[in-house]
């Protein structure tokens, strides 16, 4: 298959913000992802009180689910609208504060303290700002990253995880000549070269 057809494609942050404004968010699902339910044990290994990262989180309902289990959830999302909708749709009170290390960024935290959503680009984060994570739920994240940014994304993600972490990654298989993305087509061979 010819994956070259997607290589040059770029979706800007402005376009993502517009998708949220227009309600053009077909990627958002009200039901928990069946693969997270299926592979929950692989993510948690029976451990409790983990720090779990949701890159490019949108308003993923799984964040509430994992927080309710007692884990500490951190997400990053460029759309402030998405972040606010997450808290309001789950009736979660929250506070908002600037992130001193990142100009223009805000952190939205549930009053109970176990859900923290950074509103900024993921590329602004580093482990010195958000710490390291025991688990990652990557759905609609790597596949939403512009193909030209994949290497940078993967290197950043690797820098954000602890040694004994689990990383669940959801990708989609399709003919990349028939759809311009996102979600982009990320073949397994590329995942291996990105993450080793
Ligand atoms: N993971 C979520 C959302 C997937 S769609 C889910 O499963 O529903 C991808 C999301 O990434 C969009 O909400 C978009 O606004 C956000 N996004 C795109 N580029 C980003 C970036 N560089 N940093 C942070 N968020 C970004």
Detailed description of the structure:
This protein is α/β, with parallel strands linked by helices. The protein has one domain (13-25, 32-195): Rossmann fold (3-Layer(aba) Sandwich), CATH 3.40.50. It has helices spanning 4-7, 13-22, 34-38, 40-44, 62-68, 80-89, 127-130, 150-159, 188-195; strands spanning 51-54, 72-77, 94-98, 106-110, 115-119, 133-139, 161-170. It has a seven-stranded mixed β-sheet with strand order 3-4-5-2-1-6-7, sandwiched between helices. The longest helix is centred in the first third of the chain and has 10 residues, at 13-22. The radius of gyration is 16 Å and the shape is globular. The relative contact order is 0.18. The model has no long low-confidence stretch (mean pLDDT 96). S-adenosyl-L-homocysteine (SAH) binds next to α2 and β2. InterPro entries: SAM-dependent_MTases_sf, Thiopurine_S-MeTrfase, TPMT. Its EC number is 2.1.1.67. S-adenosyl-L-methionine binds at residues 16-27, 56, 77, 121-122, 139. Belongs to the class I-like SAM-binding methyltransferase superfamily. TPMT family.
């Amino acid at each position: 298959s010819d994956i070259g057809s997607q290589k040059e494609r770029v979706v800007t942050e402005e376009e993502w913000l517009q998708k949220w404004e227009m309600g053009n968010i077909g990627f958002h699902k009200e039901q928990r992802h069946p693969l997270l339910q299926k592979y929950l044990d692989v993510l948690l290994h029976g451990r409790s009180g983990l720090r779990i990262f949701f890159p490019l989180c949108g308003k993923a309902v799984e964040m509430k689910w994992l927080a309710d289990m007692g884990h500490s959830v951190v997400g990053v999302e460029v759309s402030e609208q998405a972040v606010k909708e997450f808290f309001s749709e789950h009736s979660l009170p929250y506070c908002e504060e600037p992130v001193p290390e990142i100009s223009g960024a805000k952190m939205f935290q549930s009053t109970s303290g176990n859900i923290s959503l950074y509103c900024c680009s993921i590329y602004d984060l580093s482990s010195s700002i958000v710490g390291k994570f025991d688990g990652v739920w990557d759905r609609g994240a790597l596949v939403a990253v512009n193909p030209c940014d994949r290497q940078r994304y993967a290197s950043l993600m690797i820098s954000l995880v602890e040694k004994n972490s689990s990383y669940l990654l959801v990708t989609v298989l399709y003919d990349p000549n028939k759809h311009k993305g996102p979600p982009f087509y990320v073949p397994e061979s590329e995942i291996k070269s990105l993450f080793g």
